[in-house]
Amino acid sequence: MPIIERIQAEISGHPIVLFMKGTPQFPMCGFSSRTAGALREAGADMATLHSVNVLEDPEVRANLPRISNWPTFPQLFIHGELIGGCDITMELFESGELARMIAETQKA
Ligand SMILES: N[C@@H](CCC(=O)N[C@@H](CS)C(=O)NCC(=O)O)C(=O)O
Ligand code: FES
Known about the structure:
The chain is built from 5 helices and 4 strands; from the N terminus they run αβαβαββαα. It is an alpha+beta fold. A 4-stranded mixed β-sheet has the order 2-1-3-4. Helix 2 links the parallel strand 1 (16-20) and strand 2 (49-53). Helix 2 (30-41) packs parallel to helix 4 (86-95). The chain binds glutathione and FE2/S2 (inorganic) cluster.
């Protein structure tokens, strides 16, 4: 599958997608670690949080920034929409908005 389609399939295939360095269990960078931690603390269960390790997928690392128009990692998508990176995710976490967004994705 061409890289753009593969990235689009990842983004649309799960309610919450985190493109990060490492994994939520073993993050390889502080920005990715903080973002995954905020998602977990805001109530994302590991079944709904789909993560892509860009260190193991250089094609995604090279191409996602020009598709999403966001230059760095991590990149958080909820319901197919780019939310942002670490700074924005932390702001949403601290205001309580992240927990609300996550709860909405996990409604029965
Ligand atoms: N202020 C950014 C910090 C993220 C950042 O600076 N990431 C860098 C270092 S991990 C990055 O992804 N650089 C491009 C790359 O490594 O491909 C945020 O809020 O997410
Ligand atoms: S890998 Fe060095 S700052 Fe993220």
